[in-house]
Design brief:
The protein is α+β, with helices and mostly antiparallel strands and 395 residues long. Helices cover 43% and strands 19% of the residues. The chain folds into 2 domains: 3-166, no CATH class; 177-205 and 254-392, 2-Layer Sandwich (Nucleotidyltransferase, domain 5). It is built from 8 helices and 15 strands. The strands form 3 sheets. Strands 1, 2, 3, 4, 5, 6, 7 and 15 form an 8-stranded antiparallel β-sheet that branches. Strands 10-9-8-11-12 form a 5-stranded mixed β-sheet. A two-stranded antiparallel ribbon has the order 13-14. It binds zinc ion. Residues 327, 329-330, 332, 347, 349-350, 352 line the site of zinc ion (ZN).
């Protein structure tokens, strides 16, 4: 049976000394990450073969003497931070990301705990060298716990617990809330589903981006780059090369969009999506725009024809439907703007904590379900309490 890893992010309710511990542990993680990043560069430059495990051993050997304050928090804070650095370097070596950067306070306030180092009991989590901390809700999934990450967002502390679960079997019943899905398309993720799954999409764009940037730059320097100038052979050659790169990214995106739209139309009988937000798209950076726009249009085209083939009902929300600003738990509508930079928000009425994209996807799902009920006159049980904060690890 296929397995998937889901993460449930739960808000913590720490007292002052617990908050102090969290800040210290996050500081320790950040220190260890930055220490290892510096050592990595230094040791590499003098010809050593560096690995994250060798750096973990080295820091372990000196911490009692040089950094005794590290011992005041869980040993996982430093260990897992250096393991993360190892992954960052692996991504860099595989050309999936840029060279790792130093972690900064306020931007990187988190630490990990391995699964043998903490326990969860109802609405409490036990953390080494700290004890029990209250959680605002219980862990949603029953499965093997893989680990946890404690992090600070907008002044609040959260724990994200990763759990392994067997992958759900396809659902084929028709016109039932369980077979409905809402999809929020984005730039950060290819798509976010109302069940909490975040489909990150291939890293193709990220990997090819530096080459595109380089090519565009050299293109503008070649004869023909300026208006009215006659295009040189070199210019045309570079132009073709650049177009080829764009096409490669578009193809990779198209392929992953096909996988996603097939999965959705095969498994869900009611599908809610949003009308394309042209105005929002135009605000994006030009390169990001051309690529995300293409995949939005492509997604829409595919889901339209595939839902016809499978008999799924596709509902495209009204132009003015405020999917991002509605609380999916109580229906409250936020006044004013919700800038794209706000990724999470709390409903002032019911105090639900929302992941922006998941909340929007749930609204699109509920909207599609209620529309389908009135259109088909079939009985559907509509629940509004489908608040979910799970996300798979790729998200
Ligand atoms: Zn609410």
């Amino acid at each position: 049976m296929k397995k998937m890893i889901l993460a449930h992010k739960i808000q913590l309710d720490p007292n002052n000394s617990q908050k102090h511990y969290f800040a210290k542990a996050a500081g320790t993680a950040r220190f260890a990450y930055n220490w290892a990043l510096e050592e990595w560069g230094r040791q590499y430059s003098v010809g050593f073969k560096v690995t994250e495990s060798s750096l973990r051993r080295q820091l372990n050997a000196i911490k009692h003497e040089k950094y005794p304050w590290m011992l005041e928090v869980t040993k996982c804070a430093a260990q897992l931070a250096i393991m993360n650095l190892g992954r960052a370097f692996a991504n860099y070596f595989n050309k999936l990301s840029d060279y790792p950067q130093y972690h900064k306070k306020w931007r990187h306030d988190s630490f990990g705990i391995s699964n043998d180092q903490f326990k969860i009991d109802g609405r409490k989590i036990c953390i080494p060298k700290l004890g029990w901390v209250r959680m605002t809700e219980e862990l949603r999934f029953a499965g093997k716990i893989m680990g946890a990450v404690v992090s600070r967002t907008a002044g609040k502390w959260f724990v994200s617990v990763q759990v392994v679960l067997p992958e759900a079997e396809p659902i084929h019943q028709h016109h039932n809330i369980d077979s409905a899905v809402g999809i929020d398309l984005g730039v950060q993720n290819l798509a976010v589903l109302s069940n909490g799954a975040k489909v990150a999409g291939a890293k193709a764009y990220k990997a090819l981006r530096p080459r595109i940037r380089r090519l565009s730059k050299s293109l503008s320097r070649k004869t023909g780059g300026r208006k009215g100038e006659c295009k040189s052979k070199n210019y045309i050659r570079a132009q073709i090369k650049l177009a080829g790169l764009h096409a490669r990214i578009a193809n990779i995106r198209k392929d992953e969009t096909h996988k996603l739209t097939s999965m959705i139309t095969k498994n869900y009988s009611i599908i809610g999506i949003e009308k394309l937000n042209i105005a929002g798209m135009l605000k994006n950076h030009r390169l990001a725009r051309s690529i995300s726009d293409m995949s939005f249009f492509e997604f829409r085209r595919q889901i339209e024809y595939k839902s016809k083939m499978t008999g799924s009902k596709l509902n495209i929300a009204d132009w003015h439907y405020p999917s991002s600003k509605l609380c999916s738990t109580c229906g409250y509508k936020m006044e004013g703007d919700l800038p794209l930079s706000i990724r999470e928000w709390e409903c002032p009425i019911c105090k639900s904590h929302h992941d922006r994209d998941i909340n929007a996807a749930i609204n699109l799902k509920n909207n599609a379900v209620s529309y389908t009920v009135s259109a088909c006159g079939e009985l559907v049980s509509v629940t509004t309490s489908t608040k979910q904060e799970l996300s798979n690890q790729s998200g």
